[in-house]
Every structure is written in structure tokens, then in C-alpha cells.
């Protein structure tokens, strides 16, 4: 039997004496797209960052492709698991060319044929070689996020951790970048774990999702259940009502 892409058991994260994540468990199959939703401060980013080795873990275990992670993430882990952040302005160095930004991970991981990989990565995210020697400060938000996605994909990972990857973008650009993410997931059979406060985005992009509140699991749902309101918790119902109110007033 194939190991889950990600298996988290009773994971807790504590910042000094504040418990940001409390005994959360979840399993994501290879090729699945899994969403994390909940109000601001519910622990969604903390969970994703814990997988990436960026949150202080105080209990529980994380397995990636069947291997239990220890305190320090290995180089191989970062080849397999890549993260895309919300803010394409903060996550790319403004004074580096796109070429340089894409070359860096290849050099760190000792990849050969960097030329071919950079050209291919730019094609894959719909930018093309014309963008190769531009500086990231010369790019729009959507173009930057495409570069961030190219940089994540260039190491040929199997899992992408996506932390609100489109919420800093205008609505029309948001849809384009979401479509791109769906295309690359299908083409490369990637596993996604995606954080979003936007229920429409998560139900569109994800097969299943976890609703979180105060660092805990509220419920696990198939996206279809959220769409048809087949939910069992009042908290989830309130999230649905809040997101509809927002859409109506938008
Ligand atoms: N480095 C940190 N030090 C102290 N507290 C933190 C730290 N990072 C997160 N927290 C706290 O942990 C809680 C969960 O934060 P987290 O960013 O995971 O929430 P979230 O659900 O992703 O919210 P948002 O949608 O606003 O990003 C919050 O109360 C936050 O203030």
C-alpha cells in the first residue's frame, strides 16, 4: 500500500505559553488536494508552517511519504515539499532577476542542466523566457506569484504547501493563478495542502478540508459536503453564513 503523502498525528504547537495548535491529526493521500479553513487565528498557517519546520512543535508526529520527520528538516525534505506564501512581494528578493531566483534552489540542490530547467519552469507557469532576466520588482503581483510557483516546482517536489497563495491578488488574477495551480497539480500529480480563508476557493480547489477553530479541528469534510451544507458543526455553519454575507455585500 502506498504511504500517505502527509500524516499528522496529535500535532501541537506552542508559542511560549500560547497553544496555537492542539493535538490536530490528519491524513492526506498522494495526489489529493486538502484544504484548511477557519477564522483568522485558528491555526491554519501554524499547521502548514509546522510541516515546513517553521513552527515550534511541542507534541505529536508528522510523516511525509511514510517517513517520520525529526526536528531538523533535511535537504531531501525541501526537495519533496515546497511552500508558496501569500505575499509574492515579500517572498521574492526584489533585486534579483527571475533567472537568479530560479537558479538558487537548483544550485543548492545540485541540479544539473539548470538552463533547460529554468526555461521549462517559466513556460510551465505561463511566463515564457521573456521574463527570465527581469527583476522581480518589475513584475506584477500575479507574475511574481507565477515566479514563486515556478521556484517551488523547479525542484520537482511531490507536495506543495500553499498558504493563501492568491489572497493578495486582484480577483481576476486570483482566478488565473488558481487555474495554473490546478493545471500543474493535474500534470505533475502533486499533493496540495492549501490554507485559505475563502471557502469558495477551497471548495473549488480541494477534495477534502479541515475546519479549524482555536488551534483545534472542528470537523473534517469533503468539499462537496460544504457546498451542499452537509455539515455537523455550528461553527462551520457560521463560517458559511459569514462567507455568503461577504459575497453578497462584495
Ligand atoms: N510566531 C508566533 N509567536 C506567537 N504567536 C503566534 C506566532 N505565530 C502565530 N501565532 C499565534 O497563533 C495563532 C494562530 O495563528 P495562525 O497564523 O496559524 O492563524 P491562521 O488561522 O493562519 O490565521 P490567518 O488567516 O489570520 O493567517 C494566532 O493567535 C497567532 O497570533
Give the helices and strands, then pairings.
Layout: E1 6-15, E2 18-28, E3 33-38, H1 44-51, E4 57-64, E5 67-68, H2 75-80, E6 81-84, H3 98-108, H4 114-124, H5 141-153, E7 159-163, H6 171-188, E8 191-195, H7 199-205, E9 208-213, E10 216-222, H8 223-227, H9 234-249
Parallel strand pairs: 3-8, 3-9, 6-7, 7-8
Antiparallel strand pairs: 1-2, 1-4, 4-5, 9-10
Helix pairs in contact: 5-6
The chain binds adenosine-5'-triphosphate.
- Please give the largest β-sheet: 6 strands, mixed
CATH architecture of the domain at 6-86 and 157-249: 3-Layer(aba) Sandwich
Strand order of the largest sheet: 6-7-8-3-9-10
| CA gyration radius, whole angstroms | 18 Å
In helices, the fraction of residues equals: 25-40%
Distance between the termini: 47 Å
Task: Provide structural commentary.
The chain has 250 residues and is α/β, with parallel strands linked by helices. It has nine helices and ten strands. Strands 6-7-8-3-9-10 form a six-stranded mixed beta sheet, sandwiched between helices. Strands 2-1-4-5 form a four-stranded antiparallel beta sheet, with helices on one face. A hairpin with a 2-residue loop joins strand 4 and strand 5. Helix 5 (141-153) packs parallel to helix 6. The mean pLDDT is 92.
Please give a quick description of this structure:
With 250 residues, this protein is of the alpha/beta class. It is 38% helix and 26% strand. The chain has nine helices and ten strands.
Task: Label this structure with key terms.
ATP-binding; single chain; 10 strands; alpha/beta; binds adenosine-5'-triphosphate; P-loop_NTPase; ATP hydrolysis activity; Rossmann fold; 4-stranded antiparallel beta sheet; globular; 250 residues; 6-stranded mixed beta sheet; ATP binding
Amino acid at each position: 500500500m502506498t504511504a500517505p503523502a502527509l500524516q499528522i498525528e496529535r500535532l501541537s504547537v506552542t508559542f511560549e505559553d500560547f497553544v496555537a495548535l492542539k493535538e490536530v491529526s490528519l491524513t492526506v493521500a498522494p495526489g489529493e488536494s486538502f484544504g484548511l479553513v477557519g477564522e483568522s487565528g485558528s491555526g491554519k498557517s501554524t499547521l502548514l508552517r509546522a510541516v515546513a519546520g517553521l513552527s515550534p512543535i511541542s507534541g505529536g508526529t508528522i510523516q511525509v511519504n511514510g517517513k517520520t520527520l525529526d526536528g531538523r528538516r533535511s535537504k531531501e525534505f525541501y526537495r519533496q515539499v515546497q511552500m508558496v506564501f501569500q505575499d509574492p512581494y515579500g517572498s521574492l528578493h526584489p533585486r534579483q532577476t527571475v533567472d537568479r531566483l530560479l537558479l538558487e534552489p537548483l544550485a543548492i540542490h545540485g541540479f544539473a542542466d539548470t538552463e533547460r530547467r529554468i526555461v521549462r519552469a517559466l513556460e510551465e507557469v505561463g511566463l515564457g523566457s521573456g521574463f527570465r532576466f527581469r527583476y522581480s520588482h518589475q513584475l506584477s503581483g500575479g507574475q511574481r506569484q507565477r515566479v514563486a510557483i515556478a521556484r517551488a516546482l523547479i525542484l520537482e517536489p511531490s507536495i506543495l504547501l500553499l498558504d493563501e497563495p492568491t489572497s493578495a491578488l486582484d480577483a481576476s488574477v486570483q482566478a488565473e493563478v488558481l487555474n495554473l495551480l490546478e493545471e500543474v497539480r493535474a500534470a505533475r500529480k502533486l499533493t496540495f495542502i492549501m490554507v485559505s480563508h475563502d471557502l469558495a476557493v477551497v471548495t473549488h480547489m480541494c477534495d477534502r478540508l479541515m475546519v479549524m477553530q482555536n488551534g483545534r479541528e472542528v470537523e473534517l469534510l469533503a468539499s462537496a459536503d460544504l457546498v451542499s451544507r452537509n455539515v455537523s458543526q455550528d461553527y462551520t455553519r457560521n463560517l458559511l453564513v459569514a462567507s455568503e454575507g461577504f459575497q453578497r455585500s462584495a
